[in-house]
Backbone:
C-alpha cells in the first residue's frame, strides 16, 4: 500500500526522496504482462510532481529548467518507466496549457494538475522520416465545424488510459494542425501496444483514426507550417531524454559502487563511471540554465554511451546472478537499449554506431 506524501516543492525536498524510494520498490511489478503504473502515477500526482512543469497562473509550481532536470534525474533513477510516462504526460499538458484556446485550457489543465486525468501525445510522425512520404501517416481535412482525421500515430504512450491525446496531423497543402482529441471519440481506435524490450509497462503503441470527426473547439494550434514549433510545449530544452538516460546510468553505477565495497577490483571502474556521470549531470544542468558549452546532441551522445556502458558493467559485475530475469540489472540493460531508438537524432545514432564499431576517436 502506498503512503501519502507531502507536496514536493523543490528537488532537494525530503518528500522527493520518500516518493523515489516507493517508486523504486514498486518497479519490479512493472515487468508483469499488461502492467501499467497506475498507483505510481497517482502517487506522483498527490506529491505535486505534475505541477512542476506548469506556470503558476494555471496552478502549477513553474520549476525552472535546471530544477526540472534534477527532479527527472531522481525519478528516472527510481523508475524509468513511470518517469518516461510522465514526460509524455507533461508534453501534452504543456501544449494544453500554452494554447490560445482558452476553452481547451480551462477544460483540461486543472484536471491534469489534480492528477485525476491523463493526457499523452501522438506527434512522432511529424518529426520523423514519415513526414516525407507521399501520404502523411495522419491526414487532416478542415471543415467549418470540425477536423477530420484519417490515418494513424504509431507511438502513443498510455493511449488506453488517456482522457485526451494531443495529436498532430497534416493537411493536403502540407500545413499542420495540433488537436486535443478525446480518446473516446468515435473513430479513435487504440490498438494493442507494442511488446517492447524495455519500458513495456508504458503501454506504448499505435492509435488509428478512422475518419474521426474532431470538433474544432479541440484545435490547439494551426493550421500552419511546422506546427510543433508554434508556441510552447517542449520540455527542458530538448534535454529530457538525455536526463532519463543519465538517471538510469546513476542506478547502475550506484549498484556497482555497492558491489565495490566488497570487491576491490571494481574500484577503478566505479570511480571512472561516477566521474563521467558527474560531469554529464553538471553539463546537463548548465545547458538547462542556458550557460552550457555542450549542444543537446552532444549531451545525448554522451548520455547514450554512458547508460549502455554503465548498465552492461553492472551486468558483468553481477555475473550469472544478473542474467536471471528476476535480477534488476537485466532490466536496466534492456531499458538502456530504449535510448538507442527513442527520439534519437541521426547524429547521435551515427556516433553510437561508430563507438560500437570501434571507429570513435
Residues:
Amino acid at each position: 500500500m502506498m503512503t501519502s506524501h507531502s507536496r514536493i516543492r523543490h528537488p532537494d525536498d525530503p518528500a522527493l526522496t520518500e516518493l523515489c524510494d516507493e517508486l523504486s520498490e514498486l518497479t519490479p511489478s512493472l515487468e508483469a504482462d499488461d502492467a501499467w503504473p497506475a498507483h505510481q502515477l497517482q502517487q506522483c500526482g498527490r506529491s505535486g510532481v505534475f505541477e512542476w512543469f506548469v506556470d503558476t497562473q494555471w496552478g502549477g509550481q513553474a520549476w525552472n529548467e535546471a530544477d526540472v532536470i534534477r527532479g527527472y534525474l531522481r525519478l528516472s533513477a527510481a523508475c524509468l518507466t513511470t518517469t518516461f510516462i510522465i514526460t509524455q504526460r507533461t508534453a501534452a499538458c504543456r501544449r494544453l496549457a500554452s494554447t490560445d484556446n482558452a476553452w481547451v485550457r480551462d477544460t483540461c489543465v486543472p484536471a491534469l494538475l489534480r492528477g485525476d486525468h491523463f493526457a499523452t501525445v501522438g506527434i512522432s510522425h511529424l518529426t520523423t522520416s514519415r513526414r516525407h512520404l507521399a501520404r502523411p501517416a495522419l491526414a487532416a481535412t478542415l471543415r467549418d465545424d470540425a477536423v477530420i482525421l484519417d490515418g494513424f500515430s504509431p507511438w502513443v504512450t498510455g493511449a488506453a488510459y488517456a482522457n485526451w491525446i494531443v495529436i498532430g496531423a497534416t493537411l493536403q497543402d502540407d500545413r499542420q494542425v495540433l488537436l486535443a482529441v478525446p480518446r473516446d471519440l468515435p473513430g479513435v481506435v487504440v490498438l494493442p501496444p507494442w511488446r517492447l524490450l524495455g519500458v513495456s509497462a508504458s503501454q506504448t503503441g499505435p492509435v488509428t483514426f478512422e475518419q474521426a470527426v474532431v470538433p474544432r473547439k479541440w484545435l490547439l494550434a494551426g493550421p500552419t507550417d511546422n506546427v510543433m514549433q508554434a508556441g510552447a510545449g517542449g520540455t527542458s530544452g530538448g534535454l529530457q531524454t538525455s536526463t532519463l538516460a543519465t538517471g538510469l546510468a546513476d542506478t547502475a553505477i550506484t549498484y556497482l559502487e555497492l558491489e565495490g565495497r566488497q570487491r576491490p577490483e571494481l574500484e577503478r571502474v566505479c570511480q571512472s563511471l561516477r566521474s563521467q556521470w558527474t560531469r554529464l549531470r553538471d553539463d546537463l544542468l548548465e545547458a538547462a540554465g542556458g550557460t552550457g558549452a555542450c549542444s543537446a546532441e552532444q549531451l545525448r551522445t554522451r548520455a547514450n554511451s554512458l547508460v549502455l556502458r554503465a548498465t552492461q558493467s553492472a551486468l558483468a559485475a553481477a555475473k550469472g546472478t544478473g542474467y536471471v530475469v528476476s535480477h534488476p540489472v537485466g532490466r536496466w540493460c534492456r531499458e538502456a537499449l530504449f535510448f538507442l531508438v527513442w527520439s534519437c537524432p541521426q547524429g547521435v545514432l551515427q556516433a553510437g554506431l561508430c563507438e560500437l564499431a570501434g571507429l570513435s576517436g
